[in-house]
Design goal:
By secondary structure, the protein is mostly beta strands. Helix content is 0%, strand content 53%.
C-alpha cells in the first residue's frame, strides 16, 4: 500500500499498517489525533511532516527518512524495535524511549530527555542541541560523529563506545559502566562521577572537578584544560599530555602528566602509598 501526499489528523489514522510506504504526507490538523502509526510494521516513511503526538509507538522493522518532527510531536518513538532513522529533524520532547535496535544517522535533534532506556543503538553523524538527560540508561550502543550540547548526559549507561564526537555537557557519564570514549572533545563540569570502567583515549577534556568517585578509570594520551580537584576518591590509571591544574585525594593507581599544579593528599582520608604520581616536567 502507498500513501502519498495525504493529510491525516484523526486518532490512529494509519493504525497497524504493514508493508506500506508513507511519502510526503502531513500528520497535522484540527482533530489533533494521536498515535498515527501505532503498532505498524515493515513500513517506510519518507519526507513526512509530523505535528501530532506519539506517532510511532510499538513500530517494528521500519525506516523513517527525511521527516520533520515538530515541537508538538512529543514522545515520537516509544517501544519500537529495529528502526532506522536517516536525515530527520527531531524537535519534540522525549523523542525516543524504551526502544531496541535503533539506528539514527545524519539527523538533527532538539529534544529534552532524548533517548531513554534504549538498547542496541547505533548513532552516526547526529547533532543534538540543548538536551537535558540525553542517552539515559542506554545499554549496548555505538556512537560516532555526535555533536552534542546539553547536560546530564549518558547517565547510568552501560557498554557504550563513543568516537570522533564533540560533547559539550556537564555531569556526563555519571554512574556509567563499561564506557569507552575515543578521539573526542569533551567540555563540561563534573565529568564521569561514580563511573566504573570508564576509558578515555586520545581525548581533549575541559572542565572543573572531573572523575571523582570513579572505579577503574583509565585515561590514555589525553589532554586537560581547567581540570582542578580531579580524581577525588577514585582509582585511576591516567596518562595526560600537558597540565592538570590539581588532583585531590586519589584512592589508588597511577597518574602521569607533564605538569600538575597542586597535589592534595590528606593523610586522614587516603593512603598516599597506594597512588603513584609522576610529573614529567615539574618534578619538584
Amino acid at each position: 500500500m502507498i500513501y502519498e501526499e495525504m493529510t491525516f489528523d484523526e486518532e490512529r489514522a494509519l493504525y497497524a499498517i504493514h508493508d506500506s510506504t508513507v511519502e510526503r504526507c502531513r500528520f497535522d490538523g484540527p482533530k489533533d489525533g494521536e498515535s498515527a502509526m501505532k503498532e505498524a510494521s515493515e513500513i517506510e516513511v519518507i519526507d513526512c511532516y509530523m505535528n501530532l503526538r506519539y506517532p510511532f509507538w510499538h513500530l517494528s522493522n521500519s525506516k523513517i527518512r527525511g521527516c520533520e518532527f515538530t515541537e508538538n510531536c512529543r514522545a515520537a518513538l516509544w517501544y519500537d524495535r529495529d528502526i532506522e532513522l536517516d536525515s530527520c529533524r527531531i524537535n519534540g520532547i522525549k523523542a525516543i524511549r524504551e526502544c531496541d535496535g535503533i539506528t539514527l544517522k545524519n539527523s538533527s535533534v532538539n529534544s529534552t530527555e532524548f533517548i531513554w532506556k534504549c538498547r542496541n543503538m547505533k548513532i552516526e553523524n547526529v547533532n543534538v542541541e540543548q538536551s537535558e538527560y540525553p542517552f539515559f540508561e542506554v545499554t549496548d550502543a555505538e556512537i560516532s560523529g555526535l555533536k552534542m550540547t546539553g547536560k546530564y548526559s549518558f547517565q547510568y549507561d552501560c557498554n557504550i563506545e563513543i568516537s570522533n564526537s564533540e560533547l559539550n555537557t556537564k555531569d556526563a557519564f555519571w554512574h556509567s559502566k563499561n564506557v569507552t570514549v575515543k578521539d573526542c572533545i569533551i567540555n563540561g563540569e563534573y565529568l564521569g562521577w561514580y563511573s566504573e570502567n570508564l576509558t578515555l583515549i586520545n581525548c581533549r577534556i575541559s572542565g572543573t572537578q572531573p572523575f571523582c568517585y570513579c572505579k577503574n578509570l583509565t585515561l590514555k594520551n589525553c589532554t586537560t584544560e581547567g581540570c582542578d580537584l580531579a580524581f577525588e576518591r577514585s582509582t585511576v590509571d591516567a596518562e595526560i599530555n600537558g597540565r592538570i591544574d590539581s588532583v585531590k585525594n586519589i584512592l589508588g593507581g597511577k597518574i602521569t602528566a607533564d605538569e600538575i599544579g597542586e597535589i592534595i593528599m590528606e593523610e586522614n582520608i587516603v593512603d598516599k602509598s597506594k597512588t603513584k604520581i609522576v610529573r614529567t616536567k615539574n618534578k619538584s
